[in-house]
Queue: 2 jobs
Job 1
Amino acid sequence: MKTECIHIDPLHPERVLIDHAAALLRAGEVVVLPTETVYGLGADALRTAAVERIFLAKGRPFNDPLIVHIADETMLRVLTTVVPPRVRPLAEAFWPGPLTLIMPRGASVPRLVTAGLDTIAIRMPRHPVALALIRALGSPVAAPSANRFKHVSPTTAQHAYADLNGCVPLILDAGPCEVGVESTVLDLCSDIPTILRPGGISLEALQAVLPDVRYSPRHELDQEDGQRETQAQRSPGQLLTHYAPTIPLILYEGSVEAMLPAMLAEARRRQNASERVGVLVADENVAAFAASGALIRSLGSADAPEQIASSLFAALRELELAGVQVILCRSFDQSGLGLAVHDRLLRAASERVVV
Ligand code: TXA
Ligand code: MG
């Protein structure tokens, strides 16, 4: 299959291009579309055959449920049996935007979308192209991140092209994504609203609307005996290695004063052993690594978690392409979007964390 990659105006998407993409979706095809978080691989959420193509194009296992994207709240009616009371204030505060809500699944939603679960993940994205496309189709759009299964999520059309060239007919290129990490997934079907995946809406922002919201970091759950399975079944996409780049990443934690010298020493040791080393740091740290011989990529200022979030996935892909054999990465403050950044770094590092 030939993959067409077309530029589209991110703020005022050209009608003719939206109609072209909507026609493909209507024909049961998949289309790569921009959202404010990451690029998505979309299909008509109400057609099983179309949704199946998402899984095939990504190489994604069928037990990993999808997020369904809507353009207005009337689309909730077909997707869910009851709209939980907490949806209203959350939607008012955060939709359109990077918040995914787990609700009871409506009977007409193909089982493939939810991987057989009785619940469904729904969000209203705020990217004008995504909204225009959902409206033009007139139906909700199921869309996971537009990467090959287990690879880093794409924050540019070029990332999606690198992973899905030949597997999708169309990529809409609206430039780099604003947020850069995926949406926050919030479960509204348990007694206490629980964050299943930290993301583009911060814990602090959610707490302001929903004071009883709960978040247990995945690595803490892992230490509680027997919890690993339970959490994995609740949100099957939350595999610990879900965001792994194709090369090993070692995550350094602790104070800046301890982290940076440890990273420097490891970079030197590995380069003496003729390894090509990449380091992920903040602007403030670049000078300290200048003479290290490692390939340095800064994620932005350590004080600006939005910057770090928006450059993280692109940086991981750049270092991969540059052919480094290992990535040494510092950790960042976990407030605001820093929580999502830390979650993705832990996953990319798998078990390789230096404290
Ligand atoms: O920002 C985003 O959320 C992006 C853009 C494209 O919207 N999408 C995205 O989709 O990240 P994906 O498929 O890569 O991640 C979906 C997450 C997975 O962690 C999955 O387990 C969880 O949502 N999820 C989906 N349905 C669920 C359900 N019924 N219950 C619990 N978790 C669910
Ligand atoms: Mg994904």
Job 2
Amino acid sequence: MTSRIDPWSSQQYADYNRLRHQFGIEAFDPEGLPEPTKLFRRGVIFGQRGFDSIKRAIDEKRPFVILTGLMPSGKMHLGHKMTIDQVIYFQSLGAEVYISVADIESYGARGMDFSLTKRLAIDEYIKNYIALGLEPGQVYFQSERRAVKDLAFVLPTKINLSQMKAMYGFDGSTNMSHVFSPLVQIGDILHVQLEEYEGLAPTLVPVGIDQDPHIRLTRDVANSFRVYSVRKDDEGKWDADVGIFVKTNEDVEKHIDRAVEMLKREGYADCKKNYGYKAIFLKGVDDDDVEKIKVHLLELERKTNPYSFFSPASTYHRFITGLTGGKMSSSVPESAVFLSDEPEEARKKVMSAKTGGRVTLAEQKEKGGVPEECVIYELFVYHLMDSDSELEDVYKTCKDGTRMCGNCKKQCAGLMADFLESHRKKVEAIDETVLEKYVKWD
Ligand code: TRP
Ligand code: SF4
């Protein structure tokens, strides 16, 4: 049983429900999202933390941010595409886009030099993102963004070394630059909410499960800088609907008074102060009010504390299986389809991929294939087949033994080659003037 997730290992993950429960990740429900794309409809995105804040922003047409980062350690493959597919979708719903080139992390954790990561980031990743449909946003470099590095230094007063060791398995021999890199990622995720960037705004970070330790750490840090916490009176202890608590020990009365003033101004009249409990007890509010009050409290805090943030939200996607059955990895070229692969090369890789087919044709006809364990089927689900009914047809005919792997692979290889061919044309059309609309050199 995994007790820890290591963001820098090549570990594979299989049982997502178990992981979800083990780490307290909520299930993802695409219900109510406008025109959800295939990754959402098909359960490839299986988990979330705090997604309700994003959902509300979408429903109420309020500003929100989607942020991701990339470690330019090699060429971009289909596994990397899933994050950017989500970024593009949320951008179409109005999100501001931030993309961090994690050159400090690449340096600290992988020893890669800064000039190489810059070139790889633009040529191997950003151009592909644009060709996949990303509209202009902010692509920036960790090493060049002052605000990110400042936050990485300022916010970790709330984290200690034992926590870092327990979360990441760091020990006495870990180089300090590596120890520092998750702190820079906290800076990435939270800096967008500084006044000089987007200001207070719910922020979504789409990730694979390997990044969850960073997400938990960032959410913990954001919470630890908060002045107020809001709790519903579920057990009827306080003779109120909700209690608002002051978490610090300084200026308690001032914090309470200011919050009550704000609440009255917003029309919530029935509030009782209790300095002894460091609390305000509120009556006559429903769930919707509670959510609004939380946002008002955050805005109130922000007036005096620049480090008040919305706790960032995250989504978790399944990892795509490599063509050879293990992990899809840049360091194992035959396991991956790279976005820069020649269509012919990709066709060959697909034709030799591991399927869920039976040993003989006769057995396949009799028992049917196992799409759940088939890399080809996964490629249809994640990337190559937009139509749900067409996909359902593949599933059914595979199961009932009327579909044979040879033809099925040919269909897949054809779709893949077509995709790569048109993708390449789009990449080739990207020149400096296009890139300028995306990349901020700070
Ligand atoms: N750690 C991420 C990776 O290994 C890269 C990254 C850096 C990132 N900053 C981020 C991801 C912020 C999400 C959000 O791929
Ligand atoms: Fe996979 Fe297609 Fe073979 Fe079914 S028929 S196991 S989906 S390759």
